[in-house]
Design goal:
Layout lengths: L1 E3 L5 E2 L1 H7 L12 E2 L2 E7 L6 H6 L5 E7 L1
Antiparallel strand pairs: 1-2, 1-3, 4-5
Length: 67
């Protein structure tokens, strides 16, 4: 698994292999890292205080810290 340094979205290996471009499907950044910690799953970003704090507007898995 890798996390995007720009939007913190956690990508599974099959998502990365399927795309072949090593881009985040959320923000299209190529800056991905295997070094991340913490994970939060956002189901309904409109009603989530955590999503607002992380500035997330799409459902999915996000890292709390990406190095």
């Amino acid at each position: 698994m890798k996390a995007c340094r720009k939007c913190r979205r956690i990508l599974k290996d099959d998502e990365i292999e399927k795309d072949k471009s090593n881009r985040c499907p959320n923000c299209h950044s190529t800056d991905l890292s295997e070094d991340f910690s913490g994970m939060v799953i956002i189901i309904n970003p409109a009603d989530s205080e955590i999503a607002k704090k992380l500035q997330v507007d799409k459902p999915g898995s996000y890292a709390l810290r990406v190095r």
